[in-house]
Amino acid sequence: MFKAPRGTEDILPEEQSYWRYIEEKAVATCRLYGYSRMDTPAFEEASLFARSVGEGTDIVNKEMYIFKDRSGNELALRPEGTASVCRAYLEHGMDNLPQPVKLYYFADIFRYERPQAGRYRQHHQFGCEAIGEASPMLDAEVIQMALSFFRSLGLLQFCLQLNSIGCKECRPNHLHKLKDYYAPLAPGLCDDCRARLAKNPLRLLDCKKPGCQAAADEAPKSADYLCIECREHFESLKRYLGVLKIEYTLNHRLVRGLDYYTKTVFEIQPLDGGSQSALGGGGRYDDLIAGLGGRPAPGIGFATGMERMVFNIKEYGIEVPRQEKPAVFVACMGGDAKIEALKTASELRDAGIAVVVSSGERSLKAQLRQANTVGATCAAIIGDDEIKEGTVTLRNMETGEQQEVQPDDLKRMLGAQQ
Ligand code: HAM
Fold it and tell me: How many Å lie between the centroid of ligand 1 and the Cα of residue 63?
């Protein structure tokens, strides 16, 4: 028997109402904030991600699904959405539009990670990007948008973690201090941290291994090494968040796992902490567009994990609208009744009434069981007697009450029920 590949999941019909609920709330939030939807391909040139997410990151080094197509092009299934949106922004000349350009997407994302609760090899994101504006006012609005989206879902038990990791001017100074600080501690660090110390010392700050926690807690903080511009940006952002009455926790260990970030980074995490289960995260990426060869344009965005939202919606018992069930199940017995059932079902559907029609040779009892399973409110039963009389038996699936009705009346009666 085949199984879904490790780290992937089927989204079964009974799960779909959660996904539709999240999508609807996401679309409604984007409308309120003036974002337009776009979709990008599931795969891109692999070098796009190496250039943007960064050569030194786990995502690019260890987690990308890379393959050569039959023409020898090196492609990668997208391990995140921001790089693709920025590539499209440049490719379609969106830098010539009034800035910032505000875009959102739903995308399946592929990362070869060690599967565990809330961590998949294919997951789904709802993400937003605002490109072409450097003001911290936009940072505040993007954060507000992410939070109001979670609130609209009913997810209130989460907190905003915030940090600034500076820019290419001030970060080297911080990295230098980090290297100096960690050098004597290296023998006590985990293998990953030791390996990252030379290449990407910022990532030591978000190591989850117990043995590395104390060192990370005491490590030099990026916020203490910001240049004047980054400091002012961060201070303005905090002021705007205050105006918007948005609470946040400053977390100097929040660095994010993608290299394109500059200045603001943030995550929405469960109150009990743990970025492993973050519902969403994002930040500013002011050098990314230029790094892809475009005219420099700053940007900021966030993405949220759909699977994690579904999990939490269930966990907190949030009621989601159920998917619409068919109004009527058409049951039939015998060859002539089948023809009548097909015609009846077509007419009802033409009138906009949702119908499931029985197509096999099962007994009436089995057909009515199916009517229950599909959640039909009533069953229209057509057998030899009904054909003889030119009627249909209409059964209320909840009460079991039955009545003979004229086919012409059926539409009106079912329409009235909807
Ligand atoms: P990210 O933090 O890597 O950011 O992913 C965003 C969200 O996707 C996470 O907060 C989490 O909810 C979910 N997620 C990530 N990895 C997995 C996984 N393996 N399984 C299940 N859910 C997962 C980005 O991808 C950036 N592109 C966000 C961004 C947009 N920054 C600026 N603009």
Answer: 13
**Domain 13-170+226-315, CATH 3.50.50.60 — does that match?**
no
- Cα 146 from chain centroid (whole Å): 12
Question: For 120, which DSSP code?
Answer: -
For 368, 377, 417, the CA distances from 396, given in Å and listed in that order, are 11, 7, 11
CB 205 within 8 A of CB 216: yes
* pTM of the complete model: 0.94
Q: Whose CA is nearest to atom 1 of ligand 1?
A: 281
pLDDT, one tens digit per residue, over 32-87 is 999 999 999 999 999 999 999 998 889 999 999 999 999 999 999 999 999 999 99
Given ligand 1 and candidates 109, 141, 261, 279, which is best to mutate, with the most ligand atoms within 8 Å of its CB?
A: 109
Percentages (nearest 5) of helix, strand, coil residues in the chain: 45, 20, 35
Residue 356, number of CB atoms within 10 A of its CB: 20
H-type alpha helices, 53-205: 58, 82-91, 136-153, 171-182, 191-199
Q: Which helix (H) or strand (E) holds 283?
A: strand 280-284
Domain ranges across the chain: 13-170+226-315, 328-417
d(CA 148, CA 32): 10
Q: pLDDT tens, 388-407? A: 999 999 999 999 999 999 98
Residue 115 DSSP symbol:
-
Provide CATH code, domain 328-417: 3.40.50.800
Q: Which residues of 146-182 are buried (b: 16+ CB within 10 A; e: fewer)?
A: bbbbbeebbbeebbbbbbbbbbeebbebbbebbeeeb
Paired with 37 in beta bridges are 104
